[in-house]
Write a structure and sequence with these properties.
Largest sheet: 8 strands, parallel, barrel
Number of helices: 14
CATH architecture: Alpha-Beta Barrel
Number of domains: 1
Strand content: 5-15%
Radius of gyration: 18 Å
Structural class: alpha/beta
Distance between the termini: 44 Å
CATH superfamily: Aldolase class I
Number of strands: 8
Oligomer: single chain
């Protein structure tokens, strides 16, 4: 596909005033979603993330078993959408989860910088899937985007998409905090979806600027425009910086306002988080919870 030409079918300019107005509207209206029903939905949309330099097989196995056991401790709260780990630990999660019905997400493809050979990215993705990953999160090549190498960037995503197979969910991280400019965030989101992404995701959580409401507005608007043109629904994932139940409700409100209630489900809305899990649980139960 000639991705650079395909982008011409979409307007790439983004009015900063319109983004600011949409963020202000979401902040003003978020209170309607600050309730346990929405908080439970947001909890069920979490990709529970363990991406630390201190990770080990023992730690990941224990963490997985605790996640599988969650419904026994909180029967009225739906479990998280998935556990997200480095590729090395996918089989550890699979073995520890057993038949617990846990969805496994793996970051891959040279996460978090994407600065490695395409062949390495392909092999890492293939190994993650072979070891049991149901979903894979990869990062765009930010340098290529900044240089305007749109075909090269999208071509990599397309190759990875083909390597994974259609049954595996592909989330593409645009690293919005590095792109900064709304036009670049929109361009990256559209390229990712055109190349086969099932979700577009804000951030790796590994740089100073992670998810922001402004980036969420730009990305959700791109998803809306892509759906209007293609009829294909892509999901949105906010990651990094989502700490509280109120943060989660704000992103939920942005998705609801721009994309509609049909997107307000873990099938199309995710939150990449670690500390937010305990904080959302504490808000739901009305007491301090340190389950994780």
């Amino acid at each position: 596909m000639d991705y650079a030409s395909k982008l011409g079918e979409y307007g790439l300019d983004v009015a900063a005033e319109a983004v600011a107005a949409e963020v202000a509207r979401a902040r003003a209206e978020a209170s309607r979603n600050e309730n346990n029903e929405v908080y439970k939905l947001c909890y069920s949309a979490i990709d529970l993330t363990q991406l630390n330099v201190t990770d080990s097989e023992r730690h990941i196995a224990e963490f997985t078993k605790k996640t599988v056991a969650f419904p026994g401790h909180f029967p009225d709260i739906p479990n998280v959408a998935s556990i997200c780990v480095y590729p090395l630990f996918v089989d550890t999660v699979a073995l520890a989860a057993g038949d617990g019905g846990l969805t496994i997400t793996s970051v891959a493809g040279g996460f978090p910088s994407s600065q490695t050979y395409l062949e390495v990215k392909m092999l890492e993705v293939a190994m993650a899937v072979e070891n049991g990953a149901d979903e894979v999160d990869v990062v765009i090549n930010v340098g290529q985007l900044l240089d305007g190498q749109y075909d090269a960037l999208a071509g990599e995503i397309e190759t990875i998409r083909n390597e994974m197979g259609s049954e595996v969910i592909l989330k593409v991280i645009v690293e919005s905090g590095a792109l900064k400019a709304p036009r670049l965030i929109r361009t990256a989101s559209l390229l990712a979806m055109l190349a086969g992404a099932d979700f577009v995701k804000t951030s790796t959580g590994k740089i100073d600027i992670a998810a922001t409401p402004e980036a969420a507005v730009v990305m959700c608007t791109a998803i809306k425009d892509y759906y209007a043109r293609t009829g294909r629904r892509a999901g949105f994932k906010a990651a990094g910086g989502v700490k509280t139940a109120e943060d989660a409700a704000l992103y939920y409100t942005i998705v609801e306002n721009i994309l509609g209630p049909e997107w307000c489900t873990p099938a199309l809305f995710r939150i990449g988080a670690s500390s937010a899990a305990n904080n959302i649980l504490s808000t739901i139960t009305g007491r301090e919870v340190k389950y994780y």
